[in-house]
UniProtKB/TrEMBL annotation:
Lineage per the UniProt record: Bacteria, Pseudomonadati, Pseudomonadota, Gammaproteobacteria, Vibrionales
PANTHER family (alphabetical): OUTER MEMBRANE PORIN F-RELATED, PROTEIN YDDL-RELATED
Keywords: Membrane, Signal
Compartment annotation: Cell outer membrane
Protein name according to UniProt: Porin
Residue ranges occupied by any Porin domain in the UniProt entry: 7-305
Species of origin: Photobacterium pectinilyticum
Coiled coil: none
Range of residues in the leader sequence: 1-21
Main localization category: membrane
InterPro entries per the UniProt record, alphabetical: Gram-neg_bact_OMP, Gram_neg_porin_domain, Porin_dom_sf
Bilayer disposition of the protein: Multi-pass membrane protein
Length: 332
C-alpha cells in the first residue's frame, strides 16, 4: 500500500502545500517556512447560449508559516496564504496568528471554521466534488475568527476537536461552529459537526449539521457525508450567485483507489431544497491524478451534471452542463 499517495488524495486540497513547505530561516527558538503551488487548469463546459467554451482557471498560492518557542511547552505561530489568479486578483485565504502547545492551538484572524474537516472526508477530488458540502461562512474559512483545534492520541486511536467563534462586525453576522473526528487505528473514522450564524436568509439564524464516516483499507478509501441545514445560501454558478434556501438536505459519497503513482477518485453529490422540493445539486464526478513525485502531478476531472434545467428553479443552462477539467500542479 502506498500510504503517502492515499494521504495526498484525501487531503490534497487543504494541507499538501504546507506539507511541502521549505524552511528558509531557523535559529534556536524560531523558524520560518515558505510553500505554495503553481496550478494550471483548463475548464471546458457550455456557456449560457449552449456553446462550448474553455475557461482558464490557473492559479498560484503562496503561504508563509512562522513559529517561535515561548517556553518549553508553549509556542507562538503565524500563518499567511494568498491565492493569485489572472487579472491581478488576490484572495487572502489565511491571515492569522496565535499560540500553541500540548493543549492544541488557538488563533485569531482569517482562518478555517470547524466544519471543513468534516467535508474534507469526501472532498478529495483534484477539482470537482463537495457540491453537497456548502458551509455557512462561520463554519468555513472567514475573518474575525477565533479558532481552536486540538489533536489527542487515545492509545492508537486519534481524536481531533475544533471550535470557532466569528465576532459580529456590526451587521449581525456573528456565528460559531464545532466539530470532531474520531479515527480508529484500524482505518475507520467518524466525524460530526454543527454550526450557526446570524443574518442569513430573511435575517434568520442559519443552522447546519454535518456527519461523516470514512474507511481506509489497503489501496482503497471510501467515505460518506450527510448535511441537514436551515436558512442557508447555495452558490449556483461560478459567479457565486446564490439561491436562498430555508430547508435543505444533502449527501456526498466518495471513493478513491491508488494504483502505483496514480489515484482514481469518484464522487456523487446530491443536495435538495426540501422546502420547495427541487434539486440544487445532482452530479457524478470522476478524476485521475498522476503523482510524478511529491512536488508535481497532473490530472483530468469530469463531472456528469444530472440537473434538469426545466425542473430546477433558478438554474440556468450553463449550470446544468457537463464539465471537463485538465490540470497540472507543482507544489513547493
Amino acid at each position: 500500500m502506498n500510504k503517502k499517495l492515499i494521504a495526498l488524495a484525501v487531503a490534497a486540497a487543504s494541507i499538501s502545500s504546507v506539507a511541502t513547505a521549505a524552511e528558509v530561516y531557523s535559529d534556536e527558538t524560531s523558524s520560518l517556512a515558505i510553500g505554495g503551488r503553481f496550478e494550471a487548469r483548463a475548464v471546458m463546459a457550455d456557456n449560457e447560449a449552449g456553446d462550448s467554451k474553455v475557461s482558464d482557471a490557473t492559479r498560484t498560492r503562496i503561504n508563509v508559516a512562522g513559529k517561535t518557542d515561548i517556553t518549553d511547552s508553549v509556542y507562538g505561530i503565524g500563518f499567511y496564504e494568498g491565492e493569485f489568479t489572472d487579472g491581478n486578483q488576490v484572495n487572502n485565504r489565511h491571515i492569522n496568528a496565535g499560540i500553541g502547545g500540548d493543549f492544541g492551538q488557538v488563533v485569531y484572524g482569517k482562518t478555517d471554521g470547524s466544519l471543513g474537516m468534516i467535508t474534507d472526508m469526501t472532498d478529495i477530488m483534484s477539482y470537482h466534488g463537495n457540491e453537497a458540502g456548502n458551509k455557512l461562512a462561520a463554519a468555513d474559512r472567514t475573518g474575525n475568527n477565533l479558532a481552536y483545534v486540538g489533536s489527542f492520541d487515545l492509545g492508537g486511536d486519534n481524536l481531533v476537536v475544533k471550535a470557532n467563534y466569528v465576532f459580529d462586525d456590526g451587521d449581525d453576522t456573528d456565528g460559531y461552529s464545532v466539530g470532531a473526528i474520531y479515527a480508529l487505528d484500524m482505518g475507520l473514522a467518524f466525524g460530526a459537526g454543527y454550526g450557526e450564524q446570524d443574518g442569513q436568509v430573511g435575517d434568520s439564524t442559519g443552522k447546519q449539521a454535518f456527519a461523516g464516516v470514512s474507511y481506509t483499507f489497503g489501496d482503497f478509501y471510501v467515505a460518506g457525508l450527510y448535511q441537514d441545514a436551515r436558512n442557508t445560501s447555495v452558490y449556483k454558478d461560478a459567479s457565486k450567485n446564490s439561491i436562498n434556501v430555508k430547508e435543505s438536505t444533502g449527501y456526498e459519497f466518495a471513493a478513491a483507489y491508488t494504483m502505483g503513482k496514480t489515484v482514481f477518485v469518484a464522487t456523487y453529490n446530491y443536495l435538495e431544497d426540501t422546502d420547495k422540493n427541487v434539486d440544487l445539486r445532482d452530479s457524478l464526478a470522476i478524476d485521475a491524478t498522476h503523482y510524478f513525485n511529491k512536488n508535481f502531478r497532473t490530472y483530468a476531472s469530469y463531472k456528469f451534471n444530472m440537473l434538469d434545467q426545466d425542473s430546477t428553479a433558478g438554474i440556468t443552462r450553463a449550470n446544468t452542463s457537463d464539465e471537463l477539467v485538465l490540470g497540472a500542479r507543482y507544489d513547493f
